[in-house]
Task: structure prediction
Amino acid sequence: MLNEFKDFIVKGNVMDMAVRIIIEVAFTAIVKSMVADLINPLISLFTRGIDFINLFVVLGEGEFATLAGAQVAGIATFAYRSFMMAGINFVIIAFVVFMLVKGVKKAKDAAEIEPAATPAPKGPTQEDLLVEIRDLLAKS
Result:
């Protein structure tokens, strides 16, 4: 049973999946940082400083200045800012994946066209063949 498990883990598909998951986690961290550190401040500029972090509605009793304060108090909140950021993250990730797939397809198409683009070597012309036949007949 241990050998079967070892064979399963060592197979290419499992290793490929593990690498994909690791890259996905790293890529997700980059996208989150891009949204939080680059896009949110730009949006804040255009909306004249609205604090997107604290866009929420309290569903329980009490008033809270920040989302973190409401969450610490254990009050239910409708944090629609988180939903907005998930939508922005999705659009960014989808665009980057689209660009990657487009680039890979373009590279693949270029690789397929390249061998067919090489010209075939030219053979002798009809005149060259006639001269060769004439010379062979003259020798016999």
Summary: The mean pLDDT is 79. The longest strand covers residues 57-58. The radius of gyration is 33 Å.
